Amino acid sequence: MVAGMFRFDGKVVVITGAAAGIGAAAAKMFSDQGAVVAVTDVNMELAEKTVSEIAAAGGKAKAYYCDVSSRESVDSMIDEVTADFGTVDVMVDNAGGTHGAVHSGNIEEYTDEEFDGVVKRNLYGAFYLCRKVIPMMKEKRAGKIVIVSSGAGRTTSRSEFGRIPYAPSKAAQLGLMRQLALECAPFNIQINGVAPGLIKSTQYIEDNWNTNTPEQKEATLKKIPAGRRGTSEEIAAGILFMASEEASYVTGHCLDINGGSLMM
Ligand SMILES: NC(=O)c1ccc[n+]([C@@H]2O[C@H](COP(=O)([O-])OP(=O)(O)OC[C@H]3O[C@@H](n4cnc5c(N)ncnc54)[C@H](O)[C@@H]3O)[C@@H](O)[C@H]2O)c1
């Protein structure tokens, strides 16, 4: 980071799915830049570990339970954060994924429940979070929202698992992001997305990656111009930029961070 830029001194940053992977990397990076971080997740053990690591580095963070697929859970988490720290300045909607659809079937193999579970986690999660924080941001005429979508939402998913519900739910997150960016621009609220490519993040993602044979891994990496998977920190850096004051004239935009994959 450039000294004096991308600072978040005293800003209250809420990150969902922040116990591990991209969310945890973002939590640590925001803290390094002066933010107070609400580390929210369904895995409280790992969330507390992330908070301890932030505290050990001299930062301020607190863990909160939040299942983004539940309206009640999202509402009560944001209420708790505002009770503790007074406001939300930055909201990062990071929790998402293919939960409940861990097979590689085609459309005829998907149940309603599998489709619903993934849409709930990705699209409804974004909807619940935005609906809860935007009124307070409109009132103070300031706010930043970053939605973590996916390359799958920009083009298609080539993952082994959960392609059918994942790709449309990640694309829909970006549709919501643009619609809300339009609504909120006059209130000085910037709403943007980041679309990660293939990222080495959590153990869950690593286990999925390791179901590939060495030949399959090599074929996948050949489709990435950079020739490798990205890191959680490389996505976190994009999230921080989108949430920064330096990006005050950027809204309704999705930043692709994928080693050049979209060019292939
Ligand atoms: N890793 C990749 O290659 C990749 C690529 C594109 C997009 N993404 C997106 O990045 C985001 C983060 O993914 P990741 O790879 O860091 O990790 P991940 O998807 O494995 O999970 C990150 C965290 O989310 C938490 N989580 C799971 N379900 C939740 C829920 N319902 N509510 C709240 N938290 C929940 C988990 O406990 C975990 O700590 C996701 O939205 C994912 O779709 C990841």
Automatic annotation (TrEMBL):
Among Gene3D superfamilies, the record links this protein to: NAD(P)-binding Rossmann-like Domain
- Do you know which PANTHER family this protein is assigned to? SHORT-CHAIN DEHYDROGENASES/REDUCTASES FAMILY MEMBER (PTHR42760)
Pfam family membership, one: adh_short_C2
Family as reported in the entry's similarity comment: Belongs to the short-chain dehydrogenases/reductases (SDR) family.
Q: What is this protein called?
A: 3-oxoacyl-[acyl-carrier protein] reductase
Organism field? Enterocloster lavalensis
Keyword tags: Oxidoreductase
Any Gene Ontology biological process: bile acid metabolic process
Q: Which GO terms describe its molecular function?
A: oxidoreductase activity, acting on the CH-OH group of donors, NAD or NADP as acceptor
